Amino acid sequence: MSRQTAAPRRRATMRDVAALAGVGLKTVSRVVNAEPNVSAETQARVERAIDALGFEPNLGAGSLRREGGRTLTIGLILDAVDNPFSAAINRAVEIVAAARGTAVFAASSDDDTARERELVAAFSRRRVDGLIITAYGGDQGYLQNEREHGTPLVFVDRVPNGLLADVVLTDNAAWSSVATQHLIDHGHRRIALLSDDLTIPTARDRRLGYERTMAAAGLEVPTGYSVGDLTTAELAGAEVERLIDRPDPPTALITAQNVITIGGVRALHRRGRQSDIALVGFDDLQLADLLSPGITVVAQDPARIGQLAAERLFARMDDDSGPAETILVPARLITRGSGELRVRRSGRTGRGSRAPAS
Amino acid sequence: MSRQTAAPRRRATMRDVAALAGVGLKTVSRVVNAEPNVSAETQARVERAIDALGFEPNLGAGSLRREGGRTLTIGLILDAVDNPFSAAINRAVEIVAAARGTAVFAASSDDDTARERELVAAFSRRRVDGLIITAYGGDQGYLQNEREHGTPLVFVDRVPNGLLADVVLTDNAAWSSVATQHLIDHGHRRIALLSDDLTIPTARDRRLGYERTMAAAGLEVPTGYSVGDLTTAELAGAEVERLIDRPDPPTALITAQNVITIGGVRALHRRGRQSDIALVGFDDLQLADLLSPGITVVAQDPARIGQLAAERLFARMDDDSGPAETILVPARLITRGSGELRVRRSGRTGRGSRAPAS
DNA sequence: ATGAAAGCGCTAACAC
DNA sequence: GTGTTAGCGCTTTCAT
User: Which of residues 297-326 of A touch B (CB under 8 A)?
Assistant: First the structure.
């Protein structure tokens, strides 16, 4: 019967290993860290002792004296570890970190400024070797301290405020433009944009791309057509219904984030308008290809974002001291039907809006 | 211009704080750890010094002497941090841990025995206070060492082998039975089961529930109807097509894991058979409600599994030394259409298989 | 209410 | 090749 809590047996230390192997402490350290200047015979003896005692070195103790105080640990702050976009980043970061013998603390800020700071403090107290952060909209100037203490910082998905640092992200304005132009090309004139919390720079950039492209096409954005703060699928869905019910409803929607897309699509189906009102979403979704119509999306590449961010972070740890870089990761437009719906002539399509699609 | 790498300013230590505040080292420690026996005035002075120096205590150093050697850190081993089921567990664990001031190392074993052991070793070297593990099929006896050294272990989603420990999971055999019976109740006789790697106890339990229920209903499981090792959506899809192409094709499918469900549904749509062949999947999927037909699933409750596992782990750390417990978390059957499809009389539905559904 | 001394397990610096 | 010494930043123990 294995008890759950027995008198915890003391863990073996290097001293124990040294004693058993009949060598000095430093020799054990050499073997454990694969340092040179150990004879094959001594090494074998030490290894036997390590196995006999089930010794595992205490990395935390080592970091106290290790040069640079390295803990072989990094912190990853995401908006939510269970958002598929964030989870994909998490996975990619883990792969890069594992190859460097580094463990990853992952945590969710929930797009809350206070929580973000708490997480940074929590990781700082654990002396992580580096930090990868999905910053919320506030000011990230407080992170300057961390950096001055030698902790490199890399931002993902969102540009930080009040701090110049490496960022890895999608060219959000450009891809929002692509989405908008795609709808314009299919004859749409009344295009609404459903955005996340506009405190987030990424959300603002997507709005910017939309506004620019609409303006360039000479199209108006009626009041209420560009809606922000849609932080849940439910809010997004309610907003879609409100838009549909307007006297001048949009013929096309852009949902600027995965959660919003889910809420939006669900609302369209609820109203039976999914084959009637066009939609292009940001971020790909599982099963998006199997709906009728399939959901057209701007698919970002979170795995690549995570990978590049982690590689950048390790490069900084390895003493790359070049200027801060902004790394843009390509996305792609995946057309599946919902974004290729053309304007219907029925209903109030607006004055002269039956332009031929290109 | 903020440089990326400047000469890293030395971090303030407790000694620095003590010197600046003009108090002893231990007094600072008392303030930092909210211990009693510090006058209000002294406390204020120390806190001012802490702020002035931007002092953050080094938790790793503290753990060296802290009773029980606590690191305020736990390890979480999932099959893949970017699997939605695992990500939901991750999130729930994080919430419970955060409330206890504990940071979470999350990592992916990829259902690889060697990787699982490496992760345990990596976490052991970091002296995590506890371990939550989604064990792969092999033998978990090697973890006995960890436990003897005082590191509590809680398993999630899968029962460990060769080790008696707390487990939090769905009653897989029972819910697989529910899925099977649901299809039988809708007139199906030829029901196929698509399983994950059967080394995984959870996959075996689901098969068990299926087999028992089929047997209890007096139904045969033709050779090739119960397929395992479907570790990717592609493999699962190919297997569905193979089943469809048999001379005696199934009229209903059970896909025993989320990745398999995706592959299976995709294959049915590819062949245009989604309204023709019934399907019940394990694990809920986003947008599953919007397909035609909607996908009927046995929805597990990963958030609850993660929460209970974390609570159990902290209880063990707090010296709960009762016997190992198995905690079953309720799931529910969500009917959306695909699982309620009845047997068609057309085609080869088999001899006398037109039984009335209950 | 406060502080001095010891030492956790390791790595760095410097012997031999 | 190998070992000895010192000390990282903290918590514990025990004085005062």
Answer: 316, 319-324
- Nearest by Cα to B58 from A244, A26, A66: A66
Give me the residue from A4, A148, A287 closest to B324, CB to CB: A4
Is B1 within 8 Å of A292 when comparing Cβ atoms? Answer: no
Question: Residue by residue, what is the 3-state secondary structure of B44-72?
Answer: HHHHHHHHHHCCCCCHHHHHCCCHHHCCC
Query: Tens of pLDDT along B112-151?
Result: 999 999 999 999 999 999 999 999 988 999 999 999 999 9
B4 touches chain A (CB under 8 A): yes
Q: How confident is the model at residue A198 (pLDDT cuts 50, 70, 90)?
A: very high
The model's pLDDT over A235-293, given as tens digits with 9 standing for 90+, comes to: 999 999 999 999 999 999 999 999 999 999 999 999 999 999 999 999 999 999 999 99
Cβ under 8 Å to B: A residues 169-208: none
pLDDT, average across residues B56-84: 96
Contact A297, A285 (CB under 8 A): yes
3 state SS of A120: helix
B65 contacts chain A (CB < 8 A): no
The pTM of the whole model exceeds 0.70 = yes
Give the separation between CA B91 and CA B307, rounded to whole angstroms.
Answer: 9
Is the pLDDT reported for residue A206 higher than 70? Answer: yes
Closest chain A residue to the Cα of B93, Cα to Cα:
A107
Sign of CA dihedral A301, A303, A304, A305: positive
Cβ(B188)–Cβ(B143) below 8 Å: no
Q: Do the chains contact at B94 and A81, CB–CB below 8 Å?
A: yes
Structure tokens at B230: 């479907």
Q: Rounded distance, CA B91 to CA A179, Å?
A: 32
